[in-house]
């Protein structure tokens, strides 16, 4: 079989479609969120949207600022943003993965390594090209309302009184300095191109890798069949529950928007940062400790009771126990995350092939695979959800406004706790799936193709049938129920062999039945086995089933001495040749047969003669002339 050439036209079109849809979705989500937050009132929406999209895919935005008064220098704004808008990133990742995997499924039942690499590289190159354009467009100047950021007038007077050479001056000069500071504050931001391209490359490759590992119906190159059975069930289960958790967070935000005072700002914040809050809560609910520090006005953006725990500006350790001391309802968080992990374990069990191992072996395989996947996923969530924001507006060396938030989790403990939680949840989920009979019932066809001795839940072993395109067709071959240790004899399986003691089961060695219920082997004089007058040794049905009927005509249905004009001549009899027979031959013209003799009793076996016709009517007399 010749190697398949790479369809470059299809590869390039798929890359253009996936990248364009991803960036359009991210740009639309970011623009809508910024508009709902009211950010477009301080600056142009286009550059801000480009900057947010660049930050969502791993880019870096560098803000700067200036406060000028009478040409004096030495005033600058120092700020740093270390937070990724995961809401925008998740929308782009889902659309990029969906279009990429859809094009890969259309490539055929099997894809070569060269074609897969061509699709990944073309998508990554086009993605970086578009991202470079966004990095160039993502720079602008945002005006800052000084009256909203600066302290009150009395505090400003005290601040100006400390300035060298200005503290003795009162009246109009001091008021003018205050007004200039309040009205001429501005912040500029620009996207760091080099760091943004590097982060974008890691982002797109990571998204495509997770998509290939989580998609259970996407073909892979030959020799990678083990990925279908060992990796994809666990990865797809964990990704599914994490996405559903984000949807639950969005639903909670919608409820808060409907009942809150500022629905627009709530929905805008949810569009940008709902995954940030949800995926920060997942490691925290699994008892991964976080270090936190907050100061200034940005403390108000933290949820309750995290803001109370970090009040004061000192660094503290954030754990469910520390938060529960301030609000006892926090203990619901570990319960909810534990149930989420249990669902992931049950999904892993339903999507993992049973194979020919015992129940203990099946549980062990599920626990090992989900444990490894969760051990890798939990540090990734911790790294993505970290927050680091610093904003210091310095005027002549004195801080007028200061704010900062720093939240980061422990990566080593995330790795360890992820392995323990994943293994435990998968083991319990596999036991529940076995108990309810759902283990292996959602196995993808690609995970079963080519397996030897891997039976399904009803004792069925799939065998891959070559297909011309798409996912290969899977045919099932029936095995006895006894060969499958997890299948119970049940009427739910229409193809299962009936037990030996079943009243309608055929005994061993019995002849197969014909199309009308007649046995192939007949005993006696043309009587089926088990029928009246025959041998009852082969009877497997009630006696009424062997009585003559529409599906079992009686073999003797007319007297043997009565001739049948349509019967075939018996052996040894000669058939009269045409033209040589006597009068009884149906092919020779002879005298008509005489009238039949009346039947005994005087009655004739024919209809009576019809009555004679009525006499004709009398002719009509002629008409008289007038």
From TrEMBL:
Disordered: region residues: 489-626
Bias (Low complexity): 511-530
Record-linked InterPro entries: Streptophobe
Composition bias type Pro residues, residue spans: 589-598, 609-620
Keywords for the protein's UniProt record, in alphabetical order: Membrane, Signal, Transmembrane, Transmembrane helix
Transmembrane spans: 81-104, 116-137, 196-214, 235-258, 330-350, 415-436
Extent of the signal sequence: 1-27
Name this polypeptide is given: Integral membrane protein
Species of provenance: Actinacidiphila alni
UniProt lineage: Bacteria, Bacillati, Actinomycetota, Actinomycetes, Kitasatosporales
